[in-house]
Amino acid sequence: MTTIQASAPPIQTSGGGSGASGGNDIAAQISRILNKIQKLTQQLNDLANSPISVDEKKKQQELIQNQIKMLQAQLAALQRQQAEEAQKKQAQALGKLEGVNSPSDDRQIDIYI
Length: 113
Fold this sequence. Notes:
By secondary structure, the chain is mainly α. It has two helices and no strands. Helix 1 runs antiparallel to helix 2 (54-98).
């Protein structure tokens, strides 16, 4: 009989660390989620050949499919976060190339007319 975990640990999707460590954390989380999806998909395939009753197969199949959907949603959120961080890094790199006149929070001038 195949044992199925009923819950997966939550994935942190809040603003990650700065620099390369934030990107590596997201990449590691994405990798872990992809591995979990692969294992669940294998469990789903193994379930078809399992000698358990049809009703039990359906229940386990639904559980596995729900877990896969949840993991896919977490994966999509992490990929969006990774893309946003890549855009920020690219914008920062362009800002450094533009020179002194690039706007930033520490270099603002309020002008009143």
